[in-house]
Predict the structure.
Amino acid sequence: MKLRDLARRATGRPTKLVLANRLRFETLLSALSAGLIHISAPDTEVAIKRALQQVVKFLGVDRGGLDEHVDGSPGLRLSWARPGLREPPPATPDDQFPWVGAKLRQGEVVRFSRLADLPAAAAIDRASFERRGTRSKVLIPLRAGGPILGVLWFASVRDGHAWPDDLVERLRLLSEAFAGVLDRRRMEVSLAERLRFEKLLSFLAAAFSHLSAADFDPAVQRGLRQVVDFLGVDRASLIEFTRDGTATRSWAVEEWMNVGEFPWLTARLQRGEVINVSQVEELPDEAAVDRQSYLANRVKPQVAVPLLVSGIVVGGLIFSTVGAERAKSDELIQQLHLLGEVFANALARKQSELEALRLRQDLTHIGRVSALGELTASLAHELSQPLTAILSNAQAAQRLIDADVVELEKVREILCDIVADDKRAAAVINGLRALIKKGETEFVPLDLNEVVGAVAWLMRSDTIMRNVSMSLELASDLPKACGDRVQLQQVVLNLVLNGLEAMREPHAGPRTLVIRTARDGAALRVTVEDSGPGIAEKDLGHIFEPLYTTKTEGLGMGLAIVRTIVNAHGGAVGAENNPAGGASLRFTLPVNREPER
């Protein structure tokens, strides 16, 4: 009886031990699962390492680790080992563990209690494990209802370790908790990246929405730098194409992109194609010039997307790396297309603004030529006077030289008069040349009194011929304005011609024209006041509109050009009837705030 009791107790002791161990493991699994279920992405690494430590100690092995795989590439790699053990170097499954890698990709658990348990097909793997000092190991693929997220593994380096089926099954349950952590972390990181991208996209769209051509270059450089930082690449370039497909210029981060050095890439962008390569070796034979350029610049090709507006390629965005290449992904291309729309719209607006500026300059130039055409008689008179005086003085000098006694003092006086008349004629011609010349707008600090005086001097003969008394009332100590001298002369000229035209019809009273300059708060004001019949109330609010005219022979462009030029200078125009009769047309300009050089 006693022997049977002893045998029964001896048999029950291992069973109780197994049950106790299983209970301990279930308790550990429950605690780990509960601890990992609400871990946020920033706390993932610490939580996983702590959990690995607990499992390694419970199993009585030497090491434990988790290797994440993202799109087939290594991601997060965490491990814990007992004190005194060196961390093994990172391994490449396909090169050093081809048999193990294939099994894991098929979703199978790999385990061996000793190296001799590995099959003959795993000869390369066995040698790799032996070099790393691994004697026993279990590797469990991590899944969360989709592709493999990574591998959970535990290993022993001191002696062999058994991996029975029931233990492996419990480790599978444990792996689900780790897989859940990885899956949540990926979703959190993905969401955070998308939010970052949306924020970047919104910021660039807002920054470029009202971008002027003058501010385009620095804004694009800042935008490219932000995109480079977001993508984690090294280089970026923006290429601009004209309507005929010619690459006109480029902007770059690190200034490496020269369009002429990449003809194959440029041609494909012009055709609206996306380029996505990771290595120079991937470039085709026809890209030999591009390949040499990449090697010379010591960069690796990456990705380039065309920029389209209404189906027309207006440019291209190009990104490249210096170090390791970034993995290709459809999400990256989609992001670049969205970013490309922002840059494309900015390029299109810049091109439209420059085209509008060119047309505006052409219009103002035509306006100047047209206005000067009205001064033909006056300009002829201004030139004929000095030319006639030069001829008369030259003839008088000839007579003095032919005389028996040459009076050198009189000849000297005549020559001085000739020089003065010549300078007078040259001043008229230079003034005309400046007004007729077609050039780029140049904003410089200038004296408005000097601008008004130059126009008044040019118009003096015309006012005399029209029997109009013109006077200037110029404010003293007037601050300088900032603008284009020729265009502002055209503004004053158009206003003066408008005032003279208003007094063309016969009317009672003196015919006077007054040009005034004054300080108007933070602005400068120029007013042209005539003594004509005034402006009808129905026309008063429309005279600066294009093609609106009160004259039978007018085109309605003179005052419209005035408003266009003044608005481009940051000023404003206005008109009103004078209490004593006639009308006053005025424009204001801001005071120059920039220090003079």
User: Anything to note?
Assistant: The chain has a mean pLDDT of 79. The chain is about 50% helix and 20% strand.
